[in-house]
Please model this.
Amino acid sequence: MQLSRIRLTSTLLLLAGACLLDSACGSSNSGAGVPTNTGQTCSLATDCYPGLDAASLHGDVECLTRVPNGYCTHSCTTDADCCAVPGECPQALAEVCAPFESTGLLECFLSCEDAAVTASGLADSNAFCQSYANAAFICRSTGGGSKNRKVCVPDG
Model:
């Protein structure tokens, strides 16, 4: 009886440990992450930032349809506007405020700049995006002229 309890306790501890390491609990930080707010897929702005009051964000919520499957973001004026509201960035990944392509509008994007990639312990920016954002994401320039930033976006 005592041996059975020890085995059961050991098994439960191993499962709990696996969950803490993200490998057995379906965490979005394992191998093929899914962004939870910025970078989430969308068709309309109302698909974005579920559970948050859009009016509390430091900018207007947008669904960028110029990227495959849409990309949730919001307008900004500085990096500090991104992740400014509790719950906005639950994965605590760095975001940057940058123009996307030739729009000239500043929006928040998941960063894959050198500092963010190095802080993750990964050496490759595409591997970073695929591990922490989505398996289909790559790291690329925002294409916003002199204010270019490196961000994770869907490939395509």
